[in-house]
Specification:
The protein is α+β, with helices and mostly antiparallel strands and about 150 residues long. The chain has helices at about 1-10, 25-30, 40-45, 55-60, 65-75, 95-105, and strands at about 15, 35-40, 80, 85-90, 110-115, 115-120, 125-130, 135-140. The strands form 3 sheets. It has a 3-stranded antiparallel beta sheet, with helices on one face. The radius of gyration is 18 Å and the shape is globular. Bound molecules: flavin-adenine dinucleotide. Flavin-adenine dinucleotide binds near residues 16, 17, 32 and 35.
Length: about 150
């Protein structure tokens, strides 16, 4: 998502992924239908976060569940609201959304690298990656770590 926003704003972006393909957990989430968000009004939605709702309020105001739905629809995701009020892609899986998302990133000039595992920083502050061709260092102006649970 960060790569999408930054590259759309004309920044030069590279994404490094240690696995052979992108979005494996996202695809796994899709097996359960991929519940993207909920359709309830923002006030009620925000209450679901309990004590964290105050911290999250400005973020959800800037990018609301409706914005998320519009984002998925913009990628051809075609969302619908289920009986429970939860929002899903019509196809009930993540793969078409992921394919369209990666194609958009490539179209926006994002360099997508797989089998590239970030190891940490070198003594002089470069990012260090292990790749199939050996160790590689990179010096971006800005680094966003989006490592999931790691
Ligand atoms: C079975 C299942 C069902 C789910 N269902 C839903 C659902 O319906 N709705 C929903 O919203 N969420 C669902 N989720 C949760 C959702 O999949 C996660 O919240 C989401 O994938 C987290 O995204 P992320 O980018 O933070 O982390 P991840 O998806 O884990 O992505 C992090 C990436 O970083 C890479 N990485 C890690 N360390 C390094 C490194 N050192 N160098 C390079 N790359 C590295 C990983 O390989 C991974 O590809 C589900 C999850 C599971 C497992």
């Amino acid at each position: 998502m960060a790569a999408d926003v930054l590259s759309a704003a004309g920044r030069s972006v590279s994404v490094f992924e240690k696995m052979p393909t992108f979005g494996r957990k996202f695809l796994m989430a899709g097996r359960g239908g991929l519940n993207l968000t909920h359709s309830e009004d923002l006030e009620r939605f925000l209450q679901r976060y309990g004590a964290a709702s105050r911290v999250l309020a400005p973020m959800l105001a800037a990018f609301s569940p409706a914005d998320l739905r519009a984002w998925a629809d913009g990628l051809g995701g075609q969302t619908f609201v289920g009986a429970s009020g939860r929002v899903f892609p019509k196809v009930m899986k993540a793969s078409p959304l992921l394919r369209a998302w990666l194609a958009r990133l490539e179209g926006q000039g994002v360099l997508l690298r797989t089998r590239t595992e970030w190891q940490g920083w070198t003594a002089d502050g470069a990012l260090s990656f292990v790749t199939p061709d050996g160790v590689e260092t990179v010096r971006p102006r800005l680094t966003i770590l989006a490592l999931g649970g790691a």
